[in-house]
Amino acid sequence: MIIGLFLLVVLSFIHLTQGQADYTVSQLLKEVWVEGRIQDIVLSLRLPRLAIGILAGGALAVAGAILQTLTNNPLASASTLGINAGAYFFVVVSMIFFPTFLGDFPFLIALAGAVLSSVLVVVLAGKQMEPVRVALTGMIISLLFASMTGSLQLLFENQTNGLFLWGSGTLVQLNWSGVTFAGPMIVVLFIAVLGIAKPMDILSLGEDVASSLGQNVRFVKLLAWAAAILLAATTVSVVGPIGFIGLMAPHIVRMLGVRGHLQIFLQSFLWGAVMMIGADVLGRLIQPGQEVPVGAMTALAGGPWLLYLAWRTAKSHTKGDRQMGGTLKPVKLPVVISIVTVLIVAVFVLAFSYNGMAWSLDWMKPVVWNFRVPRVLTAFIIGVMLALAGVLLQGVLRNPLADASVLGVTSMGGAGAMLLLVALPAIPVQYMPLGAVVGAAIALGIIMLTAWKNNFQPMLVALMGIAISAFGSAATQVFVVKAKLAVAAALVWLSGSTYGKGWEDVQLSLLLLVLLIGPAVYLTRSLDALTFGDDVAAGLGLSVKSTRVWALIVGVAISTAGVAIVGTIGFVGLVAPHIARRLVGFRHLPLLVVSGLLGGLLLVTADFVGRILIAPKDIPSGLIVALIGTPYLLYLLRKMK
């Protein structure tokens, strides 16, 4: 506690001297007490920023400590459970459609989003709150809200322009209004949290033990959830969605040997404040005179920390041999292929003939042949590729919730593309795919390095993917802010769009599909053996480690190729294999064929709907896929044992 307080005081003095108006610590100590330039700067700008940083850091850390106990999940925090993403989405929606209401009630808007995300996590994760399931559920909910938020920012760029910096998390304060609003609420909630510290100690022993000791478990959990959500919503409404503080601070406190929730909450508040102010100080040291979002700095520190926690969590669990599911009475493959092919032809005819305002069956017209036809064909081929990648990655991880977006490949691809745009602002947007390939390769490299010694244990790879994805998403948001003038073009690509695709894209995507489909088909028999578990597969003579390595490489290569051409489209690789598994069972060769066709059908349908819904404007395909696929995916999550 003494060390933490000392660090906070030192960092606070440094923090108060940073900014465009330059003065030293000694000048600050001498002149802040008398009227003049330094007193005006400190009281009107820098002290409010320092105060909100301390309050926000403490609030997020305490919320994280509560959520980790409630979900029995060391990876839980307001950011990893989707609470921040839900609050941010509601703020963006309100900024576009109800700007007056947002100005009057920012806290209520953020609270509504935070509550919705929390309810979704609790309902979908189930009563057992199994750590990996909770983490995956939070990941998918975050993906949903993030895709919708990005698309709305693209469609309503003028209305949401002021939210880019705030959306990356910033402590900038122009007056004391943020502190006077958030301060009393955070203080009152913190005192209330200290009041439930003893019941939380009992709850941490297990619900059965707590009930036998006479505790009203449901009431205590309800109070704790309410406190965590209110703390997160209050913070998001003032400083934006800042991640990783709520994840790191409670862990550091526990690693220091602190026990008992009263001390954990007190120390978490202190160390959360230290980390928040330290991140803001570091951001302004790295780039003096410019505003680096504090969310960027917490993401840089928090990404590796989350990777470490994911690795430790997976190591503490036994190997998972989860069944992939699928029908026991598969429909005959020719019947399924015939029906899906008819649907594809029907959607193709619609997509070629209708532009949202007028019908035309003359497909050879230059405007149709040169723009609409290649766009539809590109969407189909990319949909096939994303679905194939989903089948491979779900097979290798024995996890029906795995795909490129959950493994962090999509997220890091987006971050790599945006980094290229920020580092080389003169480079044309057409070169963004190069950055995506590098980002995806880094994600694959991290997974390979961390999982090699553990024989690519499915749970470890899945948790690593969640950590990489969270880091990539945070970094992407920061790069969007830094890109400034290129934001619109970047957001089109990040939302996943087939807009403006020509015959060159058709040729490139077809070439990549032909090159990569062979290795995917070759791996199907090995993946069939893996469905029976590692021990049985090894007994049948299969090299489990090499199979996992090659399936990961091929799956990531296919998804990276798709991402490089159309941007970060998620959910196709999740949804298509699920539907296929319920039609043709779990054997991977028929599953690969049907999933590919369904993926192509899904993306062409999404592209067509996005093109005609608010014609002549375009809605990115990634948003439509998320809106189509997420309800189905959430339904599956609820059903999964």
TrEMBL record:
Q: Which organism is it from?
A: Sporosarcina koreensis
Q: What is this protein called?
A: Iron ABC transporter permease
Question: Is-annotated flag, keyword Disulfide bond?
Answer: no
Q: Which UniProt keywords apply?
A: Cell membrane, Membrane, Transmembrane, Transmembrane helix, Transport
Q: Which Gene3D superfamilies match?
A: ABC transporter involved in vitamin B12 uptake, BtuC (1.10.3470.10)
The text of the family note is: Belongs to the binding-protein-dependent transport system permease family. FecCD subfamily.
Q: What is the lineage of its organism?
A: Bacteria, Bacillati, Bacillota, Bacilli, Bacillales
Query: What SUPFAM superfamilies does the record point to?
Result: ABC transporter involved in vitamin B12 uptake, BtuC
Per the record's keyword annotation, is Transmembrane included, yes or no? yes
